[in-house]
Amino acid sequence: ARPRILITRAIFPEVVQRLSEHFDVEANQADAIWTPAELAARLADKDGAFTTGSQRIDAALLAACPRLRIVANMAVGYNNFDVEALTRAGVQGTNTPDVLTETTADFGFALLMATARRMAEAEHYLRAGQWTTWRYDLLAGADIHASTLGILGMGRIGQGIARRGAHGFGMNVIYHNRTRLNAATEAQCRARYVSKDELLRSADHLVLVLPYTAEAHHTIGAPELAQMKPSATLVNIARGGIVDDAALAEALRQRRIAAAGLDVFEGEPQVHPALLDLPNVVLTPHIASATVPTRRAMADLAADNLIAFLGGRGALTPVNTPDAAPAHQRSSAN
Ligand code: GLV
Ligand code: GLV
């Protein structure tokens, strides 16, 4: 029999079609938002799942899905996975690195520029009919060119933002990361490694691009915001929860820092109400990878992972090495 898969959210019809050539597919083209119990019920008899970052895959869910062998996430981040639980259950997890790197770096830069140059605020001002005359300080913001760009989290996307800043805008790029880049990569990015404290103190613009893990929770809170320059901008395109949004809203209100650009939020799609009331923040709904070609490439890579793995050829972009023993128990039970 053909393997059975569940596609948990609406996706490009062409990708549903392609998967249907390999599998018995249960799709969700109506884009219903399932509760964890509904997801578990639909996944109970499936061999594979196509997920997006908004379905939690944990031990309780896996226990209810004994046939499941692979969960293919259409996202580079996979903090929606309990990776240890997947590994223990003998389930392969995969993500979609590389195909979204440049698109996401473009967006990080766009959000940085919109924030520093107060574009959202300016647009609201004009639409509200408040533009009546020239004024010397009307919507005056911060410079991008020749300023100091700080990057926290220097993976592929962080490096893409560094290259844009250094090569395109003559920025002085500094970064902090758990592991320092090799000299050749640092040279390509024209980026200098600094301590986290120096990064916070020296950056005119600080961009967060680190993966969300338990240790990364509230990496930027009140103490870190207090170290930043009062003229600084903060951009988060990584994950909600890396920033303490309540502390950030308070720092923005007090002008402890100048402005923030946020594509991700704690508890999204809820947004901290204090942020919604502030003029000096640019808010976007988790769209950093959202161009048509890149979203298609991400969907294709998630599909390719399912096709390769369930076809016995191994995952293309695995995030774990599943334990073999539980998988054997499952196949003998089938
Ligand atoms: C989006 O946030 C992703 O992780 O791809
Ligand atoms: C994260 O995986 C990145 O590409 O920066």
TrEMBL record:
Q: What GO MF annotations does this protein's record show?
A: glyoxylate reductase (NADPH) activity; hydroxypyruvate reductase [NAD(P)H] activity; NAD binding
Q: Which GO terms describe its cellular component?
A: cytosol
InterPro entries the UniProt entry points to: D-isomer_2-hydroxyacid_DH (IPR050223), D-isomer_2_OHA_DH_cat_dom (IPR006139), D-isomer_DH_CS1 (IPR029752), D-isomer_DH_NAD-bd (IPR006140), NAD(P)-bd_dom_sf (IPR036291)
Superkingdom classification of source: Bacteria
Which terms are listed as keywords in the entry? NAD, Oxidoreductase
Domain (D-isomer specific 2-hydroxyacid dehydrogenase catalytic): give its ranges: 5-320
> Record keywords: NAD included?
yes
- The D-isomer specific 2-hydroxyacid dehydrogenase NAD-binding domain sits at 109-288
- What family name appears in the similarity comment? Belongs to the D-isomer specific 2-hydroxyacid dehydrogenase family.
The protein in question is named Gluconate 2-dehydrogenase
Query: Which source organism does the UniProt entry give?
Result: Simplicispira metamorpha
